[in-house]
Amino acid sequence: MRHRKFVDQLAHERIHAAIRAAEEKSSGEIRVMISHKPAPDPVAKAQEAFLKLRMQATKHRNAVLIFVAPRSRTFAVIGDEAVHAKCGESFWRELAAAMTGHFQRGEFTDGIVNGINRAGEMLAVHFPHEPDDKNELPDDVVEDV
């Protein structure tokens, strides 16, 4: 995943639309962060970003962050405590494997959208949309430069 190629090919509008569509089916929240800095330990960086973005402050503690660091060719997908309790480790491994396949083929936006869709499906099962549900977090792609 070359940094410049990754950034140039990223379709923010498609990612934003995928987040909106996924969140319409659940009370969960999904965010995507692209870090332009190397992240040799993407899970630790994702956890830092999760807190920085105040994702732990959602009503049901059901937020998911897709963190991608193209400079170091790493990424992580993490969820808040309620999400992790419902889906377990195997879900995260399966989601990461699916995204990795897209990334290896240079399909960067497709990889992220696939991750959003899979996370959205899981959120819809465990955290269905509620009549009074509000969008608690922005749906835009966050870039950490």
Polypeptide structure, described:
The protein has a 4-stranded mixed beta sheet, with helices on both faces. It has a single domain, classed as Diaminopimelate Epimerase, Chain A, domain 1. The chain contains 5 helices and 4 strands; from the N terminus they run ααβαββααβ. It has helices at 3-9, 12-23, 42-52, 81-104, 108-126, and strands spanning 29-35, 63-69, 74-79, 141-144. 37% of the residues are buried.
Give the CA-based shape: globular
Rg to the nearest angstrom?
14 Å
CATH architecture term? Roll
Q: In what order do the strands lie side by side in the largest sheet?
A: 3-2-1-4
Number of strands: 4
> Cα distance, first to last residue?
17 Å
Mean pLDDT figure? 91
What structural class is derived from the secondary structure elements?
alpha/beta
CATH topology: Diaminopimelate Epimerase, Chain A, domain 1
Query: What series of H and E elements makes up the topology?
Result: HHEHEEHHE
Unreliable segments (pLDDT under 50, ≥5 consecutive)? none
Largest sheet, strands/sense/barrel: 4 strands, mixed
How many separate helices? 5
Helix content range: 40-55%
**Quick one: CATH class?**
Alpha Beta
Write down the domain tally: 1
Q: What portion of the residues fall into strands of 2 or more residues?
A: 15-25%
